[in-house]
Design a protein that fits this description.
The chain is mainly alpha-helical. It contains ten helices and no strands.
Length: 228
């Protein structure tokens, strides 16, 4: 039951993250409501994963665990930046909280937190993607090889398209403050925006997944060479 709840919370948090990236396209009020809901979901996520948090200073740190911990800490920091700056910028949900003189800084913080958080959260998902793949393999174990390939192919196509979407949407410019104002095309259908950002998310899930495989494989290969 707890594992199912974790999955539901993670699915909702991922969906909320995609929705939040469309800021101006969904409107201020909707954006703030989803942002506040994400805060609640984020707290739930950490409560459900409190065992992992308690064990952070225990046990041996392998290269994979080091990477996993660094990404998790960075995700936490970006989320805290988002929450703090979002409350300052709020004109609806948290309008009763008044903190003067920080609006300009909060806007920059919010943009940095949004785009870095989106990429880091996608990488974080990628580091745990083996769990998803294992579940899918269980479901498809009785399927033919052709069906397994048919299931995996759209993911690879979407990840490849994610490279184009990342460049064309100018995410690197926002992440490194080369452009401090986010451009939204209001004539663009919302579904196309979500497809692009979903593709970018899948791209970084792939990066996280295959990089984690690499850092697990390299030490094992080195160990095998030494023992040979």
């Amino acid at each position: 039951m707890k594992q199912k709840l974790k999955i539901i919370v993670d699915v909702f948090m991922t969906a909320a993250l995609l929705l939040l990236m469309s800021y101006n396209l969904i409107g201020d009020v909707t954006h703030e409501i989803i942002g506040a809901a994400t805060l609640v979901i984020f707290i739930m996520h950490h409560i459900l994963n409190r065992r992992w948090i308690k064990s952070i200073f225990k046990g041996r740190y392998t290269p994979f665990r080091i990477l996993q911990t660094i990404i998790a800490v960075l995700v936490l920091l970006t989320m805290l930046v988002q929450m703090f700056s979002g409350i300052i910028l709020s004109r609806h949900v948290f309008s009763f909280i008044h903190i003067d003189g920080l609006t300009s800084a909060a806007r920059i913080m919010h943009m940095l937190g949004a785009y870095w958080g989106f990429v880091l959260m996608s990488l974080h998902l990628g580091l745990h993607w083996q769990l998803v793949i294992s579940r899918v393999k269980i479901k498809l174990k009785k399927s033919s090889k052709a069906k397994q390939i048919m299931f995996a192919t759209p993911s690879f196509i979407l990840a490849a398209y994610g490279v184009y979407a990342f460049i064309s949407r100018g995410l690197a410019d926002y992440m490194f403050l080369k452009n401090q104002f986010v451009f939204f095309d209001f004539s663009e259908p919302l579904i196309l925006f979500f497809i692009d950002y979903l593709a970018i998310m899948v791209l970084f899930i792939f990066v996280g997944y295959y990089f984690s495989k690499l850092i697990i494989w390299l030490p094992a290969r080195h160990k095998n060479k030494k023992s040979a």
